[in-house]
């Protein structure tokens, strides 16, 4: 006898086959299109790894972090809202209190402990994100956390506070998955040591696009004068790695500018409401309206930025002949006489020999007489 889950799958298949014929294929396609496609774990790995060396578009991460404050229902709702905003991924923070906050700070330890989610809760949240077409990942704060996340997340992130936690960085590198290292709080030497530690375990990461540095200022919030977005270009040149921007400013302007500065990924804290919240992260986070505006602004910026190679725009093609120049006659030129340079000039439109083809004309004879102001064409050359 078929299992209950098998019967449900069979029934669902019957409805999927029948509804298009009953309601019309176009209606069915439009209805299905409202819902994000559910991806397999293998597809999610591919989706989580845009080639950061030359991405088709900026990877936008909604950093939920611990804005759920330990409530799985809030975390699930934030995933749903992030999906509605059009982001590519949601990120959390995964920690085990005993490996995270010392007993020398009992109040901080107690406060942080309220935000801890269980392994089972994270597994359910990861599934929820996948169901909504989002990449789920989380920042581990200990090797055991990384081991757990390795089973449910296709990408890792090292927090700014752990830039010098080289044992964790090496442990994550050994997982072989795409990794983001945040550079907040770091000096040039500290960033270099972190990169060196990662590459000592996975040397191919420098060239395969699987290691991304995230320019970050860890101050919450970050003053505009300290955002230092030019650091995006510097990090890229200094380390030969793709670079993103982890934003802790109070609006979305820095994210737009970061894309123009070359950031291939953006991370912005995300909450359901910024106002009247005791936990300070909410105030510097984007709410759903902010995040939707951020996504829209970044996609518009990408349209303007285009590709990083020189090529003629399609809209320019029809302007070529109108705006370029041809070789023309500066004086009347008789037929059969070797052409002198002083008899020639450059004139619009480009209906004749092109402006850079002057050497083809000087010293040659013309088959026909060319009046001053006329253009010289290839068929005029004897």
If you had to describe this structure to a student in words, what would you say it looks like?
This protein is an alpha/beta fold and 382 residues long. The chain folds into 2 domains: 41-305, Alpha-Beta Barrel (TIM Barrel), CATH 3.20.20.70; 315-380, Type Iii Antifreeze Protein Isoform Hplc 12. It has helices spanning 4-23, 25-32, 41-48, 72-85, 106-113, 119-131, 143-149, 166-173, 188-201, 205-208, 231-239, 253-260, 288-305, 320-323; strands spanning 59-65, 89-94, 135-140, 156-158, 179-182, 211-216, 243-247, 265-269, 326-329, 344-347. Helix 4 packs parallel to helix 6 and helix 12 runs parallel beside helix 13 (288-305).
| CATH-derived architecture of the largest domain | Alpha-Beta Barrel
Low-confidence stretches: 1-39, 41-46
CATH superfamily of the largest domain: Aldolase class I
Percent strand: 5-15%
Count up the helices.
Answer: 14
**Global geometry:** elongated
How is the largest sheet built, in terms of strand order?
A: 3-2-1-8-7-6-5-4
Between the first and last Cα atoms, what is the distance in angstroms?
91 Å
Give the rounded overall mean pLDDT: 88
CATH topology of the largest domain: TIM Barrel
Q: In total, how many domains does the architecture comprise?
A: 2
Radius of gyration: 30 Å
**Oligomerization state:** single chain
Report the major sheet.
Answer: 8 strands, parallel
Number of strands: 10
- H/E topology pattern: HHHEHEHHEHEHEHHEHEHEHHEE
Specify the CATH class of the largest domain.
Answer: Alpha Beta
């Amino acid at each position: 006898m078929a299992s209950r889950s098998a019967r449900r799958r069979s029934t669902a298949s019957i409805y999927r086959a029948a509804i298009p014929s009953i309601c019309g294929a176009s209606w069915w396609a439009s209805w299905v299109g409202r819902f994000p496609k559910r991806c397999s774990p293998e597809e999610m790995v591919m989706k989580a790894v845009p080639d950061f060396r030359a991405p088709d578009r900026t990877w936008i991460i909604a950093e939920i972090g611990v804005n759920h404050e330990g409530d799985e229902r809030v975390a699930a709702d934030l995933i749903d809202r992030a999906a509605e905003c059009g982001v590519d991924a949601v990120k959390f923070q995964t920690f085990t209190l005993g490996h995270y906050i010392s007993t020398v700070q009992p109040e901080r330890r107690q406060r942080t402990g309220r935000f801890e989610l269980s392994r089972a809760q994270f597994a359910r949240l990861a599934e929820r994100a996948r169901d909504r077409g989002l990449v789920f990942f989380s920042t581990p704060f200990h090797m055991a956390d990384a081991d757990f996340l390795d089973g449910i997340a296709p990408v890792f992130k090292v927090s700014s506070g752990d830039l010098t936690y080289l044992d964790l960085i090496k442990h994550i590198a050994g997982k072989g998955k795409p990794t983001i290292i945040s550079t907040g709080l770091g000096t040039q030497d500290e960033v270099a040591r972190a990169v060196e530690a990662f590459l000592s375990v996975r040397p191919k990461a420098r060239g395969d696009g699987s290691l991304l540095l995230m320019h970050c200022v860890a101050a919450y919030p970050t003053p505009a004068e300290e955002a230092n977005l030019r650091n995006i270009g510097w990090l890229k040149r200094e380390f030969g790695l793709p670079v993103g921007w982890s934003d802790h400013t109070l609006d979305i302007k820095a994210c737009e500018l970061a894309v123009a500065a070359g950031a291939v990924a953006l991370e912005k804290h995300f909450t359901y409401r910024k106002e009247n919240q005791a936990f300070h992260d909410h105030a510097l986070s984007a709410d759903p309206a902010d995040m939707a505006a951020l996504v829209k602004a970044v996609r518009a910026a990408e349209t303007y930025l285009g590709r990083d190679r020189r090529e003629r725009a399609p809209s320019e093609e029809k302007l070529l002949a109108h705006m370029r120049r041809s070789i023309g006659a500066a004086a009347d030129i008789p037929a059969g006489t070797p052409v002198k340079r002083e008899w020639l000039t450059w004139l619009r439109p480009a209906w004749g020999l092109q402006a850079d083809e002057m050497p083809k004309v000087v010293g040659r004879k013309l088959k026909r007489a060319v009046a001053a102001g006329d253009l010289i064409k290839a068929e005029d050359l004897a």
